[in-house]
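Hi everyone, sorry if this is the wrong subforum. Our group has a chain we'd like a structural model of before ordering constructs, and none of us has done structure prediction before. Sequence below.
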Amino acid sequence: MYVLVLSRDGLRVPFYVGETSNLTKRMGDYQCASFQASTDFKVGEALRYLIETQKCGIEVLFRASATGKKDERQLIRELQVLGVHLLNSLLGFNYWEANADDERKVIEKFCAMLVRHACLF
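Answer:
Right subforum, don't worry. Here is the predicted structure as C-alpha cells:
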C-alpha cells in the first residue's frame, strides 16, 4: 500500500492512496499516464500538474501489507472521514467515450482545489 503526499511551503497533504506489489512499475505507469488506463492517466496527470504547475513536491509513502486491498480501503475511509480530499474519489472515465483534454482539465481543477484547500491547514 502507498500514499502520495503533496508538499509545499512546509505543508504535507495526502492526496492518493493505492495498492501494488511492485511500486517501481506502478510509478512507471503513472509516468506514462496512458489515457487507456483511467487511473494511470488520472494520477499521472495529477502528478505532472502538481509538480510542474503548482511547484509541489511529491512524497511516496510505502508500507508492505499482506492485506493490501483491505488496508487501502480502510485508509481511504479514514482519510475521507478526516476531510482529506483524495484523487481516489474523482470518478474514472471510459476512454472510448471521453476526451483526454476534457479529462485533463477536470484533473487539473481537482488539483488546484487540493492545493487551495491545503493552504488552509
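For your construct planning: Residues 100-118 form the longest helix (19 residues). Residues 2 and 18 are 5 Å apart (CA to CA).
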